[in-house]
Structure formats: structure tokens, C-alpha cells
Write a structure and sequence with these properties.
The protein is an alpha+beta fold and 81 residues long. The protein is built from 2 helices and 4 strands. It has helices spanning 16-23, 68-80, and strands at residues 2-4, 28-38, 41-50, 55-60. β2 (28-38) and β3 form a beta hairpin.
Length: 81
Amino acid sequence: MLFYLPDSIDIARASADYLSAKFEFDNLTVKVDGQCQIGNRNMPWLEAASEDDDIRILRVGHPERKKKVDFTNKISAWIQS
């Protein structure tokens, strides 16, 4: 499951706790919470998983005005991992 959220979204609202409560995921565990370089820019990047629901979540910034090939490659690599 992918969430594209701009930098202006409050980080607390886009946190794993918020996503877990909002979408009723059980036992959501954060794997990565930080930023990821895509092209020359850093974007918000949060990876989480719920083993109970057998789901992986990626919260990443919106790709507007970013290098689309770099962005697509990064998202594709996460999906394939």
C-alpha cells in the first residue's frame, strides 16, 4: 500500500501510529522512518509492516517536479523487495 503525501502534511498525522489507527492495521511496525534521496532531493520515506494483516506500507512524498524515472525506480525497488 502506497501513500503519496507532500512535505506540508504534518509528520505526526502521517506517522505509523496515525496510519495504524486511521486504517485499523494491527501491530504496525516501523522499519524505516526518515528521508530518501531521489534524484538530487530528499523526500519523506516511511516503511512499515503489519504481520497480523500481512501488509506492507510505504509513505513517500509526492513526486511532483521530481525526477520521475528515479522516483519510479525507487518505488519499484521497494515493491519488489
